[in-house]
Amino acid sequence: MLLEFRVKNYKSFKDELVFSLVPAPKQKGLDYSVLKETISKKIYKGLSSAVIYGPNASGKTNIISAMDTFKSIVLRGNIRNNDDQNNPNTAATALQLIPNNTNKKALPVSFAIKFITNEILVEYSFSAALGEFLETDYPRKIVSETLKINNSLVFSRNDSLEIHSLDTIQKLLVNAFEQNAESAISLAKSNLNDEELFLMNSFRTMFSAKLVALISNWLDNKFMVIYRADAIHLIRKFSDPEKNSVYIEKTLNEAATSFGINSNALGYMVDDDNNEAKLFSLFRKTKKSAAIPAELFESYGTIRFVNMFPLVVNALLNGGTLVVDEFDASIHPMALMNIINIFHNDDVNIHHAQLIFNTHNPIFLNANIYRRDEIKFVERDEETHFSSHYSLSDFGTTGKSGVRKNEDYMKNYFVDRYGAIKDIDFTPIFEELISHEKGM
Questions:
Q1: How would DSSP label each residue in 414-425?
Q2: Within this chain, do residues 70 and 129 fall inside the same structural domain, yes or no?
Q3: Looking at residue 440, which CATH number applies to its domain?
Q4: What is the DSSP letter of 228?
Q5: How far apart are CA 50 and CA 61, in angstroms?
Q6: Residue 301 needs a FRET pair 20 to 30 A away by CA distance; which of 25, 54, 101, 295 works?
Q7: Are residues 129 and 276 in the same domain?
Q8: InterPro entries recorded for this chain (predicted)?
């Protein structure tokens, strides 16, 4: 369960962005959308969803990009560039694209995350000197790095490495650690690599492979960050498949049928040597059946839904945090509404899954769908071009700018009560084009 994500000096977010999924105080109503986890008799609460609004180029996608970049850096364990051609988020592989492009000097980029997994509260952060925007030959360095487990500081790294209390991870330490603690700490301090994260390297091998495995598993399998959802192409693989046989996944096919398909059913057909399967539209006739590649027959919205729905299933069954850029594009609002309601349903969302997405669709600005602290905004300053982020709950409930639960959020948004909206008028452009045309 994600509680908080922070980033600083990342693209348009020059100042620190604090993306919180901790419920704001005094938020009444829709209490069913609050998740609860107990650690050492202390109850931690998290929101089951969040929706992000803002005009084009305001920085909405940069939030998701930052999450994906953080995840990518941690899992590979270093701040060197990566040649992963499959990641549509170029900043995750070419780190010189990360720093804010207005900086007059090189400033560190900082990341921090707070989440709960396997009844353990994890708080991990690091900052890295990556140089100025587009600077490729800068000597990169991890400036700071910290790990807290259950509110207890395990290690901190600045100019040097300090190992603090290991009591909270005693059961997760490597075998015979106590007998070799002194030498392990000494060796770790003397072998720090400027470009490598201590957590994913020396700490994993010499201190606690089990703890790092828990953290890595959450990041890799439960923190599902989808940058550029329109680029998703779900690949299906089957063990020992029969060539030219059609495999129908019951749950996915039922969901797609409810969503809307142009054929009788959807199925996967294996037609090559690598066990990968392609999606086909299936037609049942009295005497003969037919299969046509789905992209040639189904709507773009249906294909997009079929690629996305398994991720929703995965999140709900495994308690994952699904973060998607423009999740609702080409998907009907009623289908979206139902998925959101499932994440808010305590009887279905028993594993504490979370859904976060950005959108331009104002239909979700509704007190009956989202709590005020689940509605997030991003706007970009016209002069500095810096992005800022805030929640509807930040306005409070009293005073001239206060927001009450029974207000019309959508109407207020379009009259610029909350910011994060931009007045756009293309008329002068076309008037000039027409005047030139008349003068010819």
A1: HTTSS-------
A2: yes
A3: 3.40.50
A4: S
A5: 14
A6: 54
A7: no
A8: ATPase_AAA_core, P-loop_NTPase
Given a contact cutoff of 8 angstroms between Cβ atoms, the answer to whether 405 and 367 are in contact is yes
Predicted structure pTM score: 0.90
Is 314 among the domain residues?
A: no
Q: How many domains does the chain have?
A: 2
What is the residue type of 152?
Answer: S
Has residue 320 been placed in a domain? no
Q: Please report which helix (H) or strand (E) contains residue 254, including its range.
A: helix 250-259
Structural domain range at position 20: 1-228+325-440
As a three-state string, the secondary structure of 323-340 is EECCCCCCCCHHHHHHHH
Same-domain status, 213 and 236? no
Looking up tokens 């192409």 gives 233
Nearest of 243, 313, 230 to residue 278 by alpha carbon: 243
Same domain, 260 and 341: no
Residue 340 confidence (pLDDT) above 80: yes
Name, in order, each residue with C-beta under 8 angstroms of 186's C-beta and a sequence gap of 6 or more: none
Q: What is the pLDDT of residues 217-274, one digit of tens each?
A: 999 999 999 987 666 655 555 555 565 566 677 888 888 888 877 777 887 777 666 6
* Closest CA relative to residue 46, chosen from 422, 388, 353, 363: 353
Cα–Cα distance for residue pair 41/279, rounded to 1 Å: 48
